[in-house]
Design brief:
It is built from 10 helices and 2 strands. The chain is an all-alpha fold. It folds into 2 domains: about 40 residues; about 260 residues, no CATH class. The protein has a two-stranded antiparallel sheet. Helix 9 runs antiparallel to helix 10.
Length: about 300
Amino acid sequence: MSRVQPDADHAAASRRIVRAAAPDLCEHRRVTHAVLDAELSPRGHHLPAAGLVVVATALLVLLPPAAPDTGPLIAVAVVQLGLVAAWVVATGIRGFLGSLAIGVAAAAGADAAVLLPDRPRLDQLVVVLGLAFLAAVAHQMTRPAPRRYLVASLAGVLLLVSCVSSLAVLLLVGRMAGGTDTLAGSVLVVGVALVAQHLVDLLLPRPQIAEDVPRGLLGLAVGVLAAVVVALLGRDGADLVTALSAVTTGTVLGAVAVLTALAASYVVAEQRRRSWALPVVQAGLPLAAAAPVVYALALHVGS
């Protein structure tokens, strides 16, 4: 009897522990389901971003001709400020307010460097990039200890500075001879490529490029093809040289846009949560990457 009683007491204690832990297990199950429900679906991954691409494209295409003096600056500044706020929120950069301030200051400085000189040059943006680099390093180094994720946060701020400075190049394109038409046509090519890629990847992301990233090679190909078609439809002239130039422009801009959009999708997939900032990043990053290419192509065509 003395040996049976401890065993019975032990079994009863085990049952009480299991019953006590059951609510915690159920709660954990409910939390797990809630987290899964909050994860981004393919529809949530693509449709909001495609909608914002349409809005940004319309803004950059329609506003400069409607208001030649202030339209280009307003359109570019809206995209820049949206990307600054969204990038800091989406990536979780440490030093939130300082990162926002550096991004806004870099955008303003880049726009001023392009608009204020009588004869603006692309190398004038180097001053903005250099000052922003020093400000970003000082900001991260002066954060309170233990300064976790310092290198990652510094890299994130510097990428943001590069993006907003790159968007300012669109203002430089607008100041070239025939720049308003070049800007509108190039942005339209990029916008159509991005929307086509999003829609194809929503319906048929095959063959899938990476696990948990709803992107496929078919979307890349269709995006570039759509860019080429838009460039051909918008060309001036029907001769062979003009057609080849349009094909080159569409291929290059389309490739830059869809590859950058793919990279932005990796950022979104890593977050695994819904956020207003993610579609803004998906729309803004490809435009920023394409801006210097637009300028280079404009110089090539004009030469």
